[in-house]
Amino acid sequence: MEFGLSEEQVAVRDTVRTFVRREVMPLEAECLRNERAGRPGVSAEQLRQLQDKARSAGFWGINTPEEYGGMALGPVMTAIVLRELGRSFVPFNFGGSADNILYRGTEEQKQRYLLPLLAGERKSCFAITEPGAGSDARAITTSARKEGDSYVINGEKTFITRGTDADFVMVFAVTDKEKKGADGGVTCFLVDRDMGWKSEPIDTMGEWGPAALVFDDVVVPEENILGELGYGFRLAMEWINAGRFTLPARAVGSCERLLQMGSDYANTRSTFGQLLSQRQAIQWMIADSAVEIEAMTLLTLKAAWLLEQGTDNRHAASMAKLYAGVKANEIVDRVLQIHGGMGYTRELPIERWYRELRLLRIYEGTDEIQRQSIARNILKGNVKIGS
Ligand SMILES: Cc1cc2nc3c(=O)[nH]c(=O)nc-3n(C[C@H](O)[C@H](O)[C@H](O)COP(=O)(O)OP(=O)(O)OC[C@H]3O[C@@H](n4cnc5c(N)ncnc54)[C@H](O)[C@@H]3O)c2cc1C
Q: Which of 162, 178, 225, 269 is the most buried (most CB within 10 A)?
């Protein structure tokens, strides 16, 4: 058994850590100012410049196959990289990545959607959730009716990340009402914005608001079906499963930075003639947070490692996401508490992290849904206790 990182993993981690410290963290004050004025934290141009800098440092397409010019780092290295990016709240990601399911497209689809996405020329969004179907995704009612060589899509999607500025959407619609909710009933379509769907931003407590998408008789050519007719749910699950471990990975980095802030503050703030760091109440908050960050890290790396082995990592990824979501929220709350009134101000970024980390317990499967699937695996014996 090996718990340490390999030399290569340490080298990549340190390079990304240095990049984040030198290039990303200096943007934090401006990012906060922009967000508080209702603008995006970093402009599209700033993001592009940062991604170009990262590319010259060798970081582009961290998950992209080598034949597409990417680094193909694999899930474990991806978790290590995202943990470093999570140390800053600046919404930065390396360029050159695309939704995994687009690699399942036809050659023509790859030319029109995958390659421009990798080049940063187009933006995508993934739309399954509807006003009446979130956790229960099989209850979607958005429909795609066949007419000649095309499909006509009608319905509404909600909470779609990047829905406001995406150029195209991977949208999931019912193509066979009889089989709705089962294999054969739902299909994924690639739909350009100029085919006629509309988006409306949704104001949330977070900084990157999602959007509602409306499809009103949107005509989509048959060749825009992604994958097989009727087998959209498999693609949706493939998209969600590939990304699940990445959410806790980023949260680990955020919690590490927050804990450092809490520890630094405790070492400098005195009350009643003693430093906060000398109070047991504060020490326990720091100790509990450190233990939980360690556990989050191990669960996340295990979920990534299982995926890298080509084995089913769904149970492990659910555990990592559930635990990290719950614990990251407790940790940011403790760090805010250690800072007292200052923690509650907008002068410090803690409240921003507080709002952002809250989302982790909701999207890509809520806490309750993760618990449901973990319990189901145990109760049905799909996963052996102690294995
Ligand atoms: C900022 C943001 C970004 C998002 N991005 C996307 C995106 O890009 N694409 C996309 O398709 N979707 C996206 N979503 C949607 C997200 O995945 C859903 O909000 C989430 O799956 C929960 O669905 P819901 O909001 O309809 O809640 P519901 O399913 O209505 O659940 C409400 C509450 O009931 C609980 N609950 C539901 N069923 C059960 C049960 N069986 N047992 C016990 N408790 C239960 C839930 O856990 C939750 O606490 C995003 C959401 C947000 C907030």
A: 225
Task: Give yes or no: 364 in active site.
Answer: yes
pTM for the whole structure: 0.96
CA of 365 to the centre of ligand 1 (A): 6
Consecutive H or E run containing 157: strand 150-160
- Relative to the CA of 162, which ligand 1 atom is closest? 8
22-66 confidence digits (pLDDT tens): 999 999 999 999 999 989 999 999 999 999 999 999 999 999 999
Look at residue 8 and tell me whether its pLDDT is greater than 80.
Answer: yes
Query: Nearest-CA neighbor of 3 among 258, 302, 321?
Result: 302
Q: Indicate the SS3 state at residue 123.
A: coil
DSSP state letters, 307-338? HHTTS--HHHHHHHHHHHHHHHHHHHHHHHHH
Of the candidates 305, 298, 300, the residue with the CA atom closest to the CA atom of residue 360: 300
Q: How far is the CA of 172 from the centre of ligand 1 (A)?
A: 16
How far apart CA 145 and CA 140 sit, in angstroms, is: 15
